[in-house]
Amino acid sequence: MAKLPQLPVYYYLDHFAEMLGFVQRTYAPVLGPEHHAFMARFEGLSRDARCLLVRMINRRGAIFNRSLFNYPEIDDVERAASDLAAAGHARELGEADYAAFVSCLPKDVLVTGAQAAGRGDVRKSWSKPRFIDYYLERIPFSVAAQHCGARNFIALDGIRPIEFLLYLYFGKTEVDLKNFALRDLGILRTNRETSFSARFTDAEEALASFHYSQILDSLETGSEPVHRRAAVDVLAGPACTTQYAGDLRSRAAHQTGLYFEKAGESDLARQLYRAGSSPDCNERLVRLLYNTGDKAEAEALLQRMIDDPASDEEHLFATDFYARKFGGQRTGLHTELLRSGRTITVDDTHRGNPEAGVAGVLRREGTKVFFTENVLWHTLFGLLFWDELFESTRMPSGFDWLPHCLKDRSFSRLFAATIDEKLAAIASGSALPLILRTVAARWGRPNGIFSWDHVQVEALRALLEGSDTAGIASIVRGMCDDFRGMRDGFPDLMLVQDGKASFMEVKAEGDVIRRNQLTRLRQLGDAGIVAEIGRVDYRFDPEQDYVVVDIETTGSWSNGDRITEIGAVKIRNHRVVDEWHSLLNPQRSIPAKIVQLTGITNEMVRDAPLFAEVADSFMQFMADGIFVAHNVSFDYGFITYEFERIGRRFRFPKLCTCAGMRRRYPGHKSYGLGKLCEIYGISLATHHRALCDARASAQLLNLINQKRSEERFIGEAA
After folding, report:
1. How far is CA 710 from CA 661, 697, 706, 707, in A?
2. DSSP assignment string, 141-152
3. In which region does residue 118 sit, left (phi positive, over 0), alpha (psi from -120 to 50) or beta (all else)?
4. Parallel/antiparallel/unpaired status of strands 546-553 and 654-656
5. Running DSSP on this structure, what letter comes out for residue 644?
6. pLDDT tens-digit profile of 519-576?
7. What three-state secondary structure class fits 472?
8. Which end of the chain, N or C, is less surrounded by CB atoms within 10 Å?
9. How far is 7 from 653, CA to CA, in rounded Å?
10. Cα 103 to Cα 416: distance, rounded to the nearest angstrom
């Protein structure tokens, strides 16, 4: 393991200075007098005071026990604290700090403090939350401060300018510098650009965005007073001059409105929803108006949403709700689409990963299947507009990966001409060479749109060559207009048959179709691209391939021991259709007791292939099969770890013949492979050799599947 680099003594202070310098250079038009005043005061502090302030900012909370300060870079902590107090960045605790003060005290201090205050009714057995409530309700702050050592505490003060500067740098209400340390330790990768651009162009936008971001950050605590304060801050907050700030305000209004709607304060919830302009706020407002009897206002709002929708999802909701509540339609679009979906029988071993089960069934029918979901569309978008996103656009900081023009929805405006050209290339069928050139020139370069590990050039080719190209261009146009709004909800699978591409969203029993998924299906359909729901019906499927595996190893520890032999038998419709076998060189000596058990000697495996040399062959043998073994976790764990060693993923549904026999053939004293073979007359001539044990386990699987098949027919008859 590589040794982490040694961080310098003053690295917290150095990071803060780096942040200040960056903000001063990049955000000069945004900074106000209070920010310049802070930076001047900060530079005038002693080095110890600057170090202490940065350390306090980098810790959780706003109050601190001075007696616990112990930082190697600070020579005189008490003097530093006094300097901060004189500069207005630290103060003694006050009544407003009471809840935070008692919350950070250890339980034993709360007990002794209450006793010293003459409170004989407290009990040491109380939980800390009960102690906190007791203090806040029964003991005045002045008394608690006297008996619980408040004089040892100080509170941060006057740090709003600091929080704003950090917000400009990180783009979120982040008040510590841990990302710098992670960068310097080599844990966090950052952009290597030498110049950056501001994420905000003027102070009005920056301050409004900061205000509403702080509200969103505060709502994570979930308390009633916090939501009450947030509601005031939303309703009385600054005007939003940009789409980005408006989006933040709408999110804050929506989250706060939900809280008060659930609390039964519908009037306040309405005010909050009206303060936001997002589809989420409009949807909640419509529902609230309708449910509280204001149906005329709800209908009027729905009509506005239909006539001038903010997004496709808003239009979808409004038309669906209007039809059901005001037009007499009995079922919603979600229900209709689910009912119209194609039913696909999938072996119930695929529970938990129905997409893989559906893919296997469709491949057996001759369809080519790609797992696509959102990745395919992100990849297409990122590769097509690479130059605009990552060459023409500067990132706001080294810690940003997603261009800000995608966050504030300015991408379409900034690059209108080139977007039109590239969408025309898609529509004319000439976009693939552009994409392939980007792949060749930029392969592996980190970005915030897609992962290179997930780039499927074959899937991109199938999409561009097998779909309505004008339709693809219209979907990508929507991503240009609102990338974040269209970042998810795309169907799970792309199906290619006879050169034609279509999409399928897989839904198992009990799954719901989310609004964004419904919207994407409608968008694809409107664009002339076939998109459907695949409804999974879990049954025993005799046509499903089961790959029964057994391994022999140098020992039982998957992280240290290695595989010496793999045997595998493929079962379809209760019959053996193929077998696979190989000895393996474990690259270590086989212990004598293992040689005695298996009969596999060091000489036998000395010239055998390494696992890496047979990995592709074994994976091809698995195909869309279900991994079966007797005590399956052992075999599956070893093989998974071997694939991890070579940097590959091994993931298949599992079935255990030991557990299956216990469930369907109960009553035996032992369910070991040897004992079960003896009971059921199964040949086990060379026990503890992989292929022999796999063949025996395959016969146990057939016994289990016979029962499963009977259960299926009983269920169908019922």
Report:
1. 15, 20, 6, 5
2. HHHHHHHTTGGG
3. left
4. unpaired
5. H
6. 999 999 999 999 999 999 999 999 999 999 999 999 988 778 999 999 999 999 999 9
7. helix
8. N
9. 45
10. 54
- Which residues does residue 629 pair with via DSSP β-bridges, in sequence order? 656
- In residues, how long is the chain? 718
**Confidence tier at 177 by pLDDT (50, 70, 90):** confident
Specify the residue for token string 């038998």. Answer: 569
Phi first, then psi: give them for residue 627, nearest 5 degrees: -80, 120
The reply to whether the predicted model has a pTM over 0.90 is no
What are 515's two structure tokens?
A: 């609004």
Residue 183 is predicted with a pLDDT of 85
Enumerate helices (H) and strands (E) in the chain, giving the number of each.
Answer: 35, 13
The Cα 366–Cα 355 span in angstroms is 17
Partner residues linked to 342 by β-bridges: 534
**How buried is 104 (Cβ within 10 angstroms: 0-12 exposed, 13-18 middle, 19+ buried)?**
middle
The closest of 33, 11, 39, 29 to 166, measured between CA atoms, is 39
Helix (H), strand (E), coil (C) string for 490-555: CCCEEEEECCEEEEEEEECCCCCCCHHHHHHHHHHHHCCCCEEEEEEEEECCCCCCEEEEEEEECC
Query: What's the token pair of residue 453?
Result: 């590990």
Closest by alpha carbon to 27, among 227, 176, 161? 161
Rounded-to-integer distance, Cα 408 and Cα 410, Å: 6
- Inter-axis angle of helices 224-235 and 243-262, nearest 10: 140
Distance CA 396, CA 405 (A): 10
Return d(Cα 118, Cα 121) in angstroms, integer: 9
**612 vs 115, 551, 584, 615, 639, CA distance in Å?**
69, 16, 10, 5, 11
Q: Give pairs for 702-711: CB < 8 Å, separation 24+.
A: 702/571, 702/574, 703/661, 703/664, 703/665, 704/655, 704/657, 704/660, 704/661, 704/664, 705/540, 705/542, 705/546, 705/571, 705/574, 706/574, 707/664, 707/665, 708/540, 708/664, 709/540, 709/542, 711/540
List own/partner pairs for 100-105 with CB under 8 A and 24 or more apart.
100/61, 100/62, 100/63, 101/63, 101/141, 101/144, 101/145, 101/148, 101/150, 101/153, 102/131, 102/132, 102/135, 102/136, 102/144, 102/148, 103/132, 104/61, 104/63, 104/65, 105/148
CA distance 444 to 294: 56
User: CA–CA separation, 330 vs 322, rounded Å?
Assistant: 11
Alpha carbon distance 94, 74 (integer Å): 27
Q: What is the pLDDT of residues 329-371, one digit of tens each?
A: 666 666 677 677 789 999 999 998 999 999 999 999 999 999 9
Active site residues: 688
Encode burial over 28-65: b for 16+ CB neighbours within 10 A, e otherwise.
eebbeeebeebbeebeebeebbbbbbbbbbbeeeebbe
Question: From residue 122, how far is each of 36, 41, 126 by CA, in Å?
Answer: 50, 46, 8
- In 3D space, the residue among 123, 223, 124, 214 whose CA is nearest the CA of residue 175 turns out to be 214
| The two structure tokens encoding residue 398 | 């080294």
What is the identity of the amino acid at 570? K
Residue 205 CA: distances (Å) to CA of 153, 246, 277: 37, 10, 17
Contacts of 284 (CB under 8 A, 6+ apart): 254, 257, 258, 261, 269, 273
Mean pLDDT of the chain, nearest integer: 92
Bridge partner residues of 654 (DSSP): 627
